[in-house]
Amino acid sequence: MNDQPLVSVVIPAYNYGRYLGATLQSILAQSYRNLEVIVVNDGSTDNTLEVVEKFAGDERLKCHTQKNQGAIIATNNGIELAKGKFIASCGSDDLWTVDHVKVLMDAFRRHPDAGLVFDNAQYFHEGRENDNLKLTVPARVSRGLNDRVVSVRQTFVRNWITGITFLVRREVLDHVGLIDPELHMVGDLHLLYRIAAYRPVYFVDHVGAKIRVHEGNMTVLEPHYKYGVRSLEHLRDHYPDVCQNIGWGAFAKKLGRKYYRLARHYERIGDLESAKITYKKAFSTRKTRPRYYWGYFRVCFRSLKGLSAKKNQPV
């Protein structure tokens, strides 16, 4: 391992002990051996620590326990503890294929200008690891994209990079900063946009990760519409240079679509006032989308109808 740079792998873990063993096994079995694996136990109340203890014979594994602060802070704390010149992360319910790290480190050797490299991931249902579900980078795209730079606009528009498929230079994180803890659920995307705006990002056509689909996934448990809006507003307000690199037209298109989806969510749950405000933001951001205006007028009409019905109710 003397000629292999140290790669630090951060695993935020909260009450996923039932999955963590398989995750650790897939990481510690990597063909690239010079790893530092840091489990950040985020105040788990299940058997997480017992699972970690089963792997205590592997000196590459470390565990840091903290009070529950959420996955973003847990990940950031793990990165702060990391000693490697290259940083990766993996969800405590996901898996890596055996050559994941090796493939990415080989890409760094081929492309010394790279700030971040990533490969493909495939979704699978719990208990069915061999399911051939969709890829994060579609098969029709991945071959032609192999060993090529992925622009910041592609990173922003396509969302091909996931939190468990990339490897980044530590020096890049020192430059752009870590994940913003205010951006619940989508902070990793915000970080990726910032990285791609400043340093080249390369893709490798290799399925290096498996994303587990189960009833406990955060995107299943909690609607994330508002967090997507918050992330893009934060980018617009605090990182105008990143938005400039993306292109303001592409940025407005995505933000307008996020506003529209959030407005539809508010309309579905009956919060018509919030829906009205958010539809207005949608068509103010993208003035050429008739359905955004239609959504606004539809909600206004529903509000007036509701007020009229209340007036006609007998006292």
Set out the fold topology.
Elements: E1 7-13, H1 17-28, E2 35-42, H2 48-53, E3 61-66, H3 71-81, E4 86-89, E5 95-96, H4 100-110, E6 116-125, H5 139-145, E7 148-149, H6 152-158, E8 166-169, H7 170-176, H8 187-198, E9 201-213, H9 218-221, H10 225-238, H11 240-246, H12 248-268, H13 272-285, H14 290-311
Parallel strand pairs: 1-2, 1-4, 2-3, 6-9
Antiparallel strand pairs: 4-8, 5-9, 6-8, 7-9
Could you walk me through the main structural features you see in this protein, from its secondary elements to its overall organization?
With 315 residues, this protein is α/β, with parallel strands linked by helices. It folds into two domains: 7-221, Spore Coat Polysaccharide Biosynthesis Protein SpsA, Chain A, CATH 3.90.550; 247-310. Helices cover 49% and strands 18% of the residues. It has helices at 17-28, 48-53, 71-81, 100-110, 139-145, 152-158, 170-176, 187-198, 218-221, 225-238, 240-246, 248-268, 272-285, 290-311; strands at residues 7-13, 35-42, 61-66, 86-89, 95-96, 116-125, 148-149, 166-169, 201-213. The mean pLDDT is 91.
| First-residue to last-residue Cα separation | 81 Å
Radius of gyration: 22 Å
Helix content: 40-55%
Q: Into how many domains do the coordinates divide?
A: 2
Number of beta-strand segments: 9
Give me the CATH architecture of the largest domain, please: Alpha-Beta Complex
Sheet of most strands:
9 strands, mixed
The fraction of residues assigned to DSSP E strands is 15-25%
CATH level-4 homologous superfamily of the largest domain: Spore Coat Polysaccharide Biosynthesis Protein SpsA, Chain A
Order of helices and strands: EHEHEHEEHEHEHEHHEHHHHHH
Structural class by SSE content: alpha/beta
Q: Total helix count?
A: 14
Write down the oligomeric state. single chain
